[in-house]
Design goal:
The complex is a heterodimer of chains A (about 550) and B (about 120). With about 550 residues, chain A is of the alpha+beta class. Chain A is built from 19 helices and 21 strands. With about 120 residues, chain B is of the alpha+beta class.
């Protein structure tokens, strides 16, 4: 067991919530509630009305699941949806074909495995994002899941922060290498140690994407870890008091921080924090120790760092060798590895998994991975604790289920929101653009030669596809009813965070993949040494890339 | 005037439906075409008076021959997602579906714009 264990209070809360929603749905269906009355209630339970049907967004708290929970999601997809689910850039899962009348039963099924749809919509503190390698990577200063769980307990149904000016997203990274896009969140927390060795956080506030992207500035270089919840309370209070409620486009904390100035905003937070009764908010050491202990201890075996079985298998199998090169990451324990499962097979929908695939991943986690599964903001899955000895067997099973695509962080590992194929907000489709590009770069040797290249696609300015922080960002726009796509270059959501810059006029759909190819060709001709696409762009600026795209493509 | 049809989502299932003149039907091809404002507005008013059956009824504009909605968004609603051609209304195939799939000359969606500005 390596997941946080829900206690009786958590379980009663979920059961109560599901029962409450059952009553609300019954009252809506009978006409006792109008749609205007019901809509905020369903949204608080993650239920949206999209283009073709209702969509249920299920929270995966800080992106962590066990096999039992993954099987429950697979069963829901099979019994109440159309046999698949969509993992999102906020490490949640969406079911796109849900019926309102079935939703209470689905919430009961979720509650039975300690899952729910709370904090997946509305102007509350949303599900926290954390490092999918948490507890597995040697890079981390401390396990960010412990702090994410503390934030979950503090924020769920927090009466003061349920009706904020706008939604609020927090990310916690425990490593210097940022796999959470921390600076693109309302609050990004980076765990660190002070010179004296004390555990704490760098606090970044006011990042975000949407129509006005910002990277969150650091308002406190070091916050002692024990003060986390009181300091978050202070940030939220200042935001709740001063954030705009008159204009939805200016309501996020990023606008407040940008207009106030990070220094002044930080000063106001410090003043608020100083006036708080911090002791009544912060977790007592005993409770923190209880949370830490509730994650359990994984009984890692003492193994040699090198697995002869694994080495022999990959020497004999080029596909396994490629998978190992691209999809495995170092584990903190000798003889173990982190296995990334890319939900990015060329031609498939980024982030989608069928019920059978979800069950296959559950079985692998249970048999080989200490029953631990992570969801990443790049819409992939992770088995964080796999013995190197077991990698050949895991790989074979992944192959059998179409889950062995060896393209992590390569050009075909594309983030794409559901776009106009599903989403009522979208202006253009994102999925077919991702599919076009992935097919064009399907040849794995070529993809590896290009190296790390993160393409992120959004179907509208709300930027669920994180296009602002893509090495190549693609934004779908509506030009007189036709789909067009605006390219941006130079973004990053990692520790070297930056916002991408628009390259030039938007392109019609069929010219996007050729334009990406032109960008790649330009990069390959210009790169020096081990430069990634992003490095070459940063060194040379947009001019050669602009020339590459607009010399051949014909912008509208 | 531009031809119009009346569409909505069913409350209990969320399914996209169209007004045929007698009933709410699944296929765009079976929808009643309004060639004057008054009958369309009257049907819309009736739909709005059925809040336990429907959500968000609104009129959409059609291309000149009435074979498809003008806006790309409405065409996808009338067909299904393009990443799963086996799902949604397009799964039944046939000439009427093909006509929507091959429609062009789109313009911005009508009616629904006021409903989609805010991201919840």
């Amino acid at each position: 067991m390596s997941l946080y264990a829900y206690d009786q209070i958590d379980r009663e809360m979920l059961a109560d919530r599901a029962a409450e929603f059952r009553g609300q749905v019954a009252r809506r269906l009978s006409g006792d509630l109008t749609e205007d009355q019901f809509k905020p209630l369903r949204l608080m339970n993650g239920l949206y009305l999209q283009l073709h049907a209702y969509m249920l967004r299920v929270a995966i708290p800080y992106g962590t699941l066990d096999g039992r929970q993954m099987r429950a999601l697979a069963a829901i997809a099979r019994d109440y949806d159309k046999g698949y689910g969509h993992f999102t850039t906020r490490t949640n899962i969406q079911f796109h074909w849900v019926r309102l009348k079935d939703t209470p039963d689905i919430l009961d099924r979720l509650a039975a495995v300690d899952l729910h749809a709370i904090q997946t919509s509305g102007n509350c503190i949303r599900n926290t994002t954390t490092d999918p390698y948490a507890g597995a990577t040697a890079e981390e200063v401390d396990d960010p899941r412990v702090w994410s769980e503390a934030i979950r307990q503090w924020s769920t149904f927090h009466p003061e922060f349920t009706y904020l000016p706008r939604k609020f997203k927090i990310a916690v990274t425990g490593s210097a290498k940022d796999r959470t896009a921390a600076r693109a969140h309302d609050i990004g927390l980076k765990i660190k140690r002070s010179r004296e060795g004390e555990l704490g956080f760098e606090v970044m506030v006011g990042g975000g994407m949407g129509r006005t992207p910002y990277l969150g500035p650091t308002i406190r270089e070091f916050l002692p870890a024990r003060s986390l919840l009181s300091y978050l309370t202070a940030v939220l209070r200042v935001y709740n008091r001063l954030g705009r409620r008159d204009n939805i486009y200016k309501a996020r904390i990023k606008i407040l921080v940008a207009s106030t100035g990070a220094e002044e905003f930080g000063r106001q937070v410090e003043a608020e924090w100083a006036a708080l009764d911090q002791g009544s908010i912060d977790l007592p050491d005993l409770e923190l120790a209880r949370i830490r202990a509730a994650f359990g201890v994984i009984p890692f075996e003492t193994l040699p760092a090198r697995s002869e079985a694994f080495e022999a298998a990959r020497a004999a199998d080029l596909a396994l060798a490629r998978f190992a090169r691209n999809n495995l990451a170092p584990h903190k324990k000798p003889g173990y590895t982190i296995v990334n499962i890319a939900l990015k097979a060329p031609g498939e929908t980024p982030g989608d998994a069928t019920s059978a695939q979800m069950e296959a991943v559950a079985a692998l986690a249970e048999r080989y991975g200490h029953d631990d599964i992570r969801v990443t903001h790049a819409q992939n899955l992770v088995l964080p604790h796999v013995k190197l000895d077991d990698v050949p067997a895991v790989f074979a099973e992944l192959q059998r289920h179409g889950l062995a695509t060896a393209n992590l962080d390569l050009i075909s590992d594309i983030i794409a929101c559901p776009g106009l194929d599903y989403c009522a907000l979208a202006n253009a489709r994102a999925i077919p653009i991702a599919q076009d590009i992935a097919r064009r770069f399907e040849q794995p040797d070529r993809a590896e030669a290009i190296g790390e290249l993160k393409i992120k696609i959004s179907g509208c300015i709300n930027a669920c596809g994180h296009h602002h922080v893509g090495h190549i960002g693609i934004l779908g726009v509506d030009k007189k009813g036709e789909e067009f796509y605006q390219l941006s270059l130079g973004g990053s959501g990692a520790e070297d965070a930056s916002i991408a810059s628009i390259l030039g006029p938007a392109l019609p759909a069929d010219q996007v993949a050729p334009a990406v190819e032109a960008l790649v060709d330009a990069y390959l001709g210009l790169k020096t040494g081990e430069e990634r696409f992003l490095d070459t762009y940063r060194r040379l600026g947009p001019a050669p890339f602009k020339e590459a795209v607009y010399a051949d493509a014909h912008p509208a | 005037m531009t031809l119009q049809v009346l569409t909505a989502n069913r409350l209990d299932t969320g399914d996209v439906v169209f007004w045929s003149g007698q009933a709410w039907v699944e296929q765009f091809a079976d929808a009643e075409r309004f060639d004057a404002p008054e009958p369309g507005d009257a049907a819309l008013a009736t739909a709005k008076a059925q809040p336990t059956l429907l959500v968000d009824p609104y009129l959409i504009d059609l291309v000149a021959d009435g074979s498809a909605p003008v806006s790309f968004r409405e065409r996808i609603r009338a067909l299904g997602p393009t990443d799963h051609m086996e799902l949604g209304k397009q799964a039944m195939g046939g000439e009427a579906i093909a006509a929507i799939q091959h429609a062009h000359g789109a313009a911005r969606s009508t009616g629904r714009l006021s409903l989609i500005r805010r991201k919840p």
